[in-house]
Amino acid sequence: MLDVVPALLIAVALGAALWFFQRRLFGPAGSRPRAALRLTAVILVGLALVGYGAFRLSKARGVQLAGELVTHVDTDEKVVALTFDDGPQPAYTQSVVDTLEAYDAKGTFFVIGNDAATPPDSLRALVSAGEEIGNHTWSHPRLLAISQGAIAQEIETTDAVIREAGYSGPIVVRPPNGKRLLAAPWYLWRHGRTTVMWSLEPDSIPGIADDPDALVTYVRDNVRPGDIILLHVMYESRSASRAALPRILEALAADGYRFVTVSQLLALRGR
Ligand SMILES: [Zn+2]
Hints:
5-stranded parallel sheet, 49% helix, binds zinc ion, alpha/beta, TIM Barrel, 10 helices, 7 strands
């Protein structure tokens, strides 16, 4: 359980710091009961801070304890990468591909291995349309406090399904819900894999997610060159995202944007 390591290290450092400061603030405890009380208080405050810190770190978009992490690429070129999480579902895959095609766009689809494999027709449709395929794990678990063996299973079985569908491009990885602490980044770092997060997630914002107009306006108002946009279009409940997709493409194309895959975006780094 690798995720315990950073929490323990932070806890020890924090405990020492808290102990030092309480002595500076209040002086020596004087009696044993008072010392015990102070120690308990320090431990409780420390645990609360460590828990909060680990929680924030596990969902931080721009910080990771190991391995390469990308949320956005700095570039002057007006390009964005449209990324689609979960699925692919047969009910929606072809229409999403057709919509992208109409705007000369390629997307990056972070597929769930289990969904992609049963049956693999939707994944094959994505591959033959020339879309980029990313790995979103086999069963969409929270990659927290998870063993290296379990992570390997999640990642490698999904890779195998993607390759069996005929995909030969690079396979970047996106942890489910963006959640990771040390276990997942450690595994991905050891295997030279890139973690790809996102810089805009319009359909995760309450009040916007169910309104196609609001989704389009939000993206248009907030987009910057090199952004990675996350949309969920593979669930029945996400009709607003599907309705917004052609209009987002239309609006950004009108603003001079081109639509590239994540790998094409990554290739612009340092240029
Ligand atoms: Zn997901």
